[in-house]
Specification:
Order of helices and strands: EHEHEHEEHEEEEEEHHEHHH
CATH architecture of the largest domain: Alpha-Beta Complex
CATH class of the largest domain: Alpha Beta
Number of domains: 2
Number of helices: 9
Number of strands: 12
Largest sheet: 10 strands, mixed
Strand content: 15-25%
Shape: globular
Helix content: 25-40%
Structural class: alpha/beta
Radius of gyration: 19 Å
C-alpha cells in the first residue's frame, strides 16, 4: 500500500491518556498538529482529572476525540478505553502514545511504512530520545533475558552517535509509543487491567510474539520523551524521586510477569533474581530509614505472589 496516496492510507488511531497534566498533554497535541500523515484521529482519554483538564482540552483542541473517566483507571484502563473506541470505529492501526512526548512530523509515516512493508511485523516503535537532552537516547528497543526475567532497555542514557540507527527486531516494545495492527489487538485482547501501570506493554508484546509476529524498532522515526512523569515525583512523600506507589507497582507487576512467562529452567534464574533484588531493596530502605517505601515493597511482594 502506497503512503503517497492519501485515499489508500490505513486509518490510524493515536491514543493518549491524560491525568491532571493539561500543559504536558497540550504540548504533545500541539506537536501532533504538524503530523504529515493524513488519515489519523487523536483519542485523548482523561483519567478522572481534577485540574480542569477536560474543559481546557475540549476548548483548545476541538479536533481531538475526548473520552472521560470519572476516576483514575491507570495506564491500562485509560488506554483500553481509547483502544476499544478505535476498534469500534474500524481503525486499521492503533498507536499508544505517552502524553509527555513531542513527536516529529514524519514519525508516523515512517513507522507505518515500515510496518506495512512486512506482514510478519505485528508492532513497531520509534527511536525515543529525551526531550530535554535531544541527543541522548531514552529507548532504542527492548530486550529480554528469559533466564533471569530481566527487561533491558537498549541504548538507555547513551549519547546518540548513530550506533542504534539500524532497524532490528526486539523482544518488547515500550508503551511510550506502541504502534500495532488492529486485527492483532482483536486476537490478543486489550491491555491486561491487572497491571494498572508498568509491564503491561511487555505483556502485550509477548502476546503478539506468541502469535508468531515480529516486533520491530525503526530508528528513522523519532520522538522525544519527558521521561518519568508517572513515577519520579516528590509530592506526598520524602523518600527519593521514585514514589512508593511506583516502587510497589514495579515489584508486584514484575512478579506477575515471572509467574506468567517463566517456564522450566528459567524459573530458577527468575526467582533467584527476584529474591536478590527485593532483598537489596529491603536492606537499602531499612538502612536509609525509608519506611514508607519499605512497606510498599513488602506489599508489592505479597500482592505479586498472591493476586
Amino acid at each position: 500500500m502506497s503512503l503517497s496516496e492519501s485515499a489508500s492510507l490505513p486509518s490510524l488511531a493515536i491514543v493518549i491518556v491524560n491525568w491532571n497534566s493539561f500543559n504536558v498533554t497540550a504540548a504533545c497535541l500541539l506537536s501532533l498538529r504538524s503530523l504529515e500523515y493524513n488519515n489519523f484521529e487523536v483519542i485523548v482519554v482523561d483519567n478522572g482529572s481534577k485540574d480542569n483538564s477536560t474543559e481546557q482540552l475540549r476548548s483548545e483542541f476541538p479536533e481531538v476525540t475526548l473520552l472521560e473517566h470519572e476516576e483514575n483507571k491507570g495506564f491500562t484502563g485509560g488506554n483500553n478505553t481509547g483502544i476499544q473506541y478505535a476498534l469500534d470505529h474500524g481503525k486499521d492501526l492503533i498507536m499508544l502514545l505517552n502524553n509527555d512526548t513531542i513527536v516529529s512530523a514524519d514519525f508516523a509515516t515512517i513507522l507505518i511504512k515500515a510496518l506495512l512493508a512486512d506482514a510478519s511485523i505485528g508492532a513497531i516503535q520509534p527511536k525515543i530520545m529525551y526531550n530535554q537532552e535531544r541527543d541522548v537516547i531514552w529507548n532504542a528497543g527492548g530486550f529480554f533475558n528469559s533466564f533471569y526475567s530481566l527487561f533491558k532497555t537498549r541504548g538507555l542514557d547513551k549519547k546518540d552517535q548513530g550506533q542504534y540507527d539500524n532497524p532490528i527486531d526486539v523482544d518488547w516494545i515500550t508503551g511510550c509509543c506502541f504502534l500495532v495492527r488492529s486485527n492483532i489487538v482483536q486476537q490478543i485482547g486489550l491491555l491486561d487491567d491487572k497491571f494498572f501501570i508498568y509491564y503491561e506493554d511487555s505483556d502485550w508484546s509477548f502476546k503478539i510474539r506468541r502469535l508468531d509476529y515480529r516486533l520491530r524498532y525503526e530508528p528513522g522515526a523519532k520522538i522525544y520523551h519527558e521521561a518519568g512523569m508517572s513515577n519520579q515525583n516528590r509530592k506526598g512523600h520524602n523518600e527519593g524521586n521514585i514514589s512508593p506507589f511506583s516502587r510497589y507497582m514495579t515489584i508486584r507487576n514484575h512478579l506477575f510477569m515471572v509467574r506468567r512467562y517463566a517456564k522450566g529452567i528459567n524459573l530458577l534464574g527468575s526467582w533467584a533474581n527476584q529474591v536478590l533484588k527485593i532483598s537489596i531493596y529491603i536492606g537499602y530502605f531499612v538502612l536509609r530509614r525509608r519506611f514508607t517505601k519499605l512497606k510498599f515493597v513488602i506489599r508489592g511482594l505479597r500482592d505479586g505472589l498472591t493476586k
